[in-house]
Write a structure and sequence with these properties.
By secondary structure, the chain is of the alpha/beta class. Helices cover 46% and strands 12% of the residues. α4 (135-145) crosses α5.
């Protein structure tokens, strides 16, 4: 498929041919949701902690005697109903990590990029070259491209000028192509990719079916060659047995004549 490509001034130039295995994949909402939830869960620290009644210091003495006080019986001032007491069922340190297979992560990236391309929210730029690392230069670039909403700028490799120019802009983030992920794609409405970033992303996540077909075609040829070698070895092993059989039959015939 083809996508329109722009220069830094916002003018349209020759369209770029992109892989259908990365920008032409149907949407799978369940997959994208599961991957996005895993990214948010993995970002949680899980360090919240509260003290139970066994962890709170003090409270060794019984507040008052068991009976004949007219008040409810109490055993410790560290009980949950007391001020300064322990917490019941409070949060404890835990690990929120969710393991997602690589195929699911890559599939979610394909789905989101394809949907961005269908919604015309994916802009391909020939290259991003800034005269100097200034915020106003990035503002000028985004305004010429017509990008006013939250934007994700993707380059083939980390570019210092681009990173410094965009770091002070609210809701604008820069990423190298190899660090592209489903959560950042979902959190930013517009995606601006350079031509080299597109090629880099294709080399990382595009579906390449011909490579699988070639491997499937080459495997039987190897098996046939191995079978032929096995047959030849069997013939060579059978030949000495035939000669021994002939010698044995000749000796038997000579013994019969002598008798």
């Amino acid at each position: 498929m083809r996508l329109p490509m722009l220069d830094t001034t916002g003018k349209s130039i020759d369209p770029i041919e992109v892989s259908d295995g990365l920008f032409g994949v149907p949407m799978n909402q369940a997959l994208v949701h599961q991957v996005a939830v895993s990214h948010m869960a993995n970002a949680r620290q899980g360090t919240s902690a509260t003290k139970t009644r066994g962890m709170v210091s003090g409270g060794g003495a019984k507040p008052w005697r068991q009976k004949h006080t007219g008040r409810a019986r109490q055993g410790s001032t560290r009980s949950p109903q007391w001020r300064g007491g322990g917490i019941v069922f409070g949060p404890q340190p835990r690990d929120y990590t969710q393991r997602i297979p690589k195929k699911m992560n890559r599939g979610a990236i394909r789905c989101i990029l394809s949907q961005k391309a269908r919604d015309e929210k994916l802009l391909v730029v020939k290259d991003i070259q800034l005269s100097q690392a200034k915020t106003r230069e990035m503002v000028k670039l985004l305004s010429s491209l017509g990008v006013t909403s939250p934007a994700l700028i993707v380059t083939s490799a980390p570019q210092r000028d681009v990173m410094l120019s965009a770091k002070n802009l609210e809701r604008v983030k820069t990423l190298p192509a190899q660090q592209l992920n489903a959560l950042d794609l979902l959190q930013h409405d517009r995606v601006v990719m350079t031509e080299e970033a597109v090629r880099r992303a294709e080399s990382l996540w595009a579906l390449d079916m011909p490579a699988v077909v070639i491997e499937a075609e080459t495997e039987p040829a190897v098996d046939e060659a191995a079978d032929e070698a096995t047959d030849m070895a069997g013939v060579e092993e059978e030949a000495p047995d035939a000669e021994e059989a002939e010698e044995t039959s000749g000796e038997d015939a000579a013994e019969e004549r002598e008798e």
